[in-house]
Amino acid sequence: MTHSSAIQTSTTHLRALRQPMSSRPRIVCAYRKIIESAVSQVFAISLVDLGQQTRGQAHVASARQVAMYLAHVACGLSFTEIGGLFKRDRTTVAHACSVVEDRRDDVLFDSVLELLECAVLNMASFPHQNDFNNPQD
To answer: How many other CB atoms are there within 10 angstroms of residue 75's CB atom?
Structure first.
């Protein structure tokens, strides 16, 4: 795939994200799975821990905050949409984004976030390679 077709594919997905939530559930759920997969690997936590309803341990809560931040920054989802995906209130999502943004002053943490943002955007640009609804296993 050429650079221009990758940009066009990414632009198509960003247009889909601008549609109302009710008409785009599949792509939004795909973004959540992409983000959770990347975050769980980088922070070495299980997907089960990341998806827990309770706060859990501090490192798990921190990873969940990063996942919510990526959903907002990299995927352009609103706080309300992210809250629905992660079963949290929109104010919790806003707090998570604020906490993560404050932590970006740490050079190492900022580098990790930049890499995660790139990974999420790259994986989201090629949805046919990330078909979570039809696993081949």
So the answer is: 24
The confidence band for 126, taking pLDDT boundaries of 50, 70 and 90, is: low
The dihedral sign for the CA sequence 127, 131, 132, 133: positive
Residues 62-80 have pLDDT tens digits of: 999 999 999 999 888 999 9
Q: Of 62, 3, 72, whose CA–CA distance to 35 is shortest?
A: 72
Closest CA to 31 of 132, 118, 102, 99: 132
Token digits of residue 108? 């190492």
pTM of the full structure: 0.73
For 18, the 3-state DSSP assignment is coil
- Measured between alpha carbons, how far is 128 from 6 in angstroms, rounded to an integer? 13
Provide the H-helix boundaries in the chain: 3-17, 25-42, 47-50, 58-73, 79-86, 90-103, 107-125
How far apart (Å, rounded) are the C-alpha atoms in residues 36 and 120? 10
Provide the phi-psi class of 27: left if phi over 0, else alpha when psi is between -120 and 50, else beta: alpha
